[in-house]
Amino acid sequence: MASIGRDGASWYYVVSNGTDPITFKPRQIKKRGFKTKEEAEIAAMEVELSIKKNEYFQGENMSFQSLYEDWIKTYALDRKQSSVDCRKKSLKCLIRAWGNTPIKKITTPVYTKFMNSLVQTYEYNTREITHISAKLMFDYAVNMDYLKENPTKKYRLPKGKAKKQVDKKDFLEKEELAVFLGLAKSVGLEHDYEFFSLLAFTGIRIGEALTLKWIDVDFENSSISINKTLYNPNNNKRVYDLTDPKTMSSNRIISIDPFLLNTLKEQKKKQTKQMEKYKDIYDDEGFIFTCEEGRPYSRTRFASRIRRLMKRMEGLNKHITPHSFRHTHASLLLEANANMKVISHRLGHATVATTDETYGHLTRGLEKKASQQFSELMRDLVDFNEINASDHTLSDANHDQKYDH
């Protein structure tokens, strides 16, 4: 039987919900804020009825924010910090929308309507990560008996906006890359030439390049192994983690050409001098590119160095970032007519479709160029056939005149 009481100007109820199986203490459901005694009694009866039907869930009135805080603590117990940060970031838009909303009110239709509203502003990959994170959180709510069903379970992500295609302002053309690397060699700062050459000639992500170690380079077979990336959200060179690459397909071995192989050999010699110069503070962990203490550089370090060099490339109105060298590598491979599957492997994409979606539009110009080259190739043959056809016409005319007489 529910207990009804008054607290100042409002009424409340207390309903017994059995005994806690762990603490053996009575479990009580309390709610206050009712304007009249009758409202409190009706609400209490509804709760008692749901308990009898085994349909009452202890956390239904828990806010979305409270559920999130409860879940993220549990999730973080056996996850890497980078994974935890990823989940936090992906759920920010849901927290903004539903922070104080009771989770029982976030039904499948409510969830579907909100997620579909993101189609116009967020790319598919971003929405997918948000959906996966929300599903994990609501699975936790069901497992904890806070909810009966997971409202995200039946939702299917619409494709929505196509992935943004790479624009020509996002990468360097072959001649522009040559000028940039020339500047990096002549007026660049320490490691600039070697590091930017590595990015441009492999297409690897900057996080993968910063954590590359000498043990990852196979000089005998001219290849490098990509098996980790840098997690350093605060760009603090003293506080960082080495984590698994972005995806399973990002874990790969790629071939490198003689130029890059020799460039890395030169880098090895320079590093030996660097280690000697800073021997009192240098802690050798085997990284290829390091600051004075032997730690990996931060991502922002090379971003600022790119801006420094780009200022010297007069008349070039392009926004080049460390990631631009990845686009540069892909575009030059396409120009060289490399197989799309090979390009996909080098970039560490999960599927060829991902590569084609990002860079496929760049092949249109190449197709036009190929068509023009084919026309040039066939021109001599066409001219030959026209001449040959003309000769046949003359021969036929002579033949007719001969027999007319």
Rg from alpha-carbon coordinates: 33 Å
CATH evolutionary superfamily of the largest domain: Intergrase catalytic core
**Secondary-structure class:** mainly alpha
The main sheet orders its strands as 1-2-3
What is the residue-averaged pLDDT? 85
* Span of the ends, CA to CA: 129 Å
Q: Helix segment count?
A: 15
Could you say how many structural domains there are in total?
Answer: 3
Largest sheet: number of strands, sense, barrel closure: 3 strands, antiparallel
Low-confidence stretches: none
| Beta-strand residue percentage | 5-15%
Q: Helical content, roughly?
A: 40-55%
Number of strands: 8
What gross morphology would you assign? elongated
CATH topology of the largest domain: hpI Integrase, Chain A
In CATH, the architecture of the largest domain is Orthogonal Bundle
User: Which CATH class of the largest domain applies here?
Assistant: Mainly Alpha
Description:
The chain is mostly helical and 405 residues long. The chain folds into 3 domains: 3-52, no CATH class; 64-143, Tyrosine recombinase, N-terminal domain (DNA polymerase, domain 1, Orthogonal Bundle), CATH 1.10.150; 168-363, Orthogonal Bundle (hpI Integrase, Chain A), CATH 1.10.443. The protein has 15 helices and 8 strands. Strands 1-2-3 form a 3-stranded antiparallel beta sheet, with helices on one face. Strands 4-5-8 form a 3-stranded antiparallel beta sheet, with no helix packed on it. Strand 2 (10-19) and strand 3 form a beta hairpin. It is elongated.
